[in-house]
UniProtKB/TrEMBL annotation:
It comes from Thalassovita autumnalis. Pfam families: Gly-zipper_Omp (PF13488). Residues 61-96 form the Glycine zipper domain. It comes from the Bacteria. InterPro entries: Gly-zipper. Keywords: Signal. Residues 1-22 form the signal peptide. The keyword Membrane does not apply. The lineage of its organism: Bacteria, Pseudomonadati, Pseudomonadota, Alphaproteobacteria, Rhodobacterales. This is Glycine zipper domain-containing protein. The keyword Signal applies.
Amino acid sequence: MHLKFHHHILALSALITLAACADPLDRQVQLSGPAGANFAADQAACRQVAKSYTDERARRGTYAGVAVGGLAGAAEEEDLEGALIGAALGGVIGRAEAEAEINEDRRAVMLRCLQNKGHPVVG
């Protein structure tokens, strides 16, 4: 395996690790006015609602990443080992990207939930 390919693997691992640390549900909520008396309890309840939100993007992202990564790995290494490594990395990347999108959707669900409870949430 080429040394260049190993560097891609290490860099990619670092990026995925950093992306996994930033959960949008934990970011501070921006308000356009004072928080109401029930804000903390409502935020906890809305966070639980948002955590239950799922869709099929994570699975589809994994499959797409496997396909693209396998092709890229095969082109880079010109052998089965390169294709397998590329497919594995592509699957991880595809899944991570889809999960990041879903996590942003979960934040939007939490914010809408808080707005529906009467809190002056702007972001």
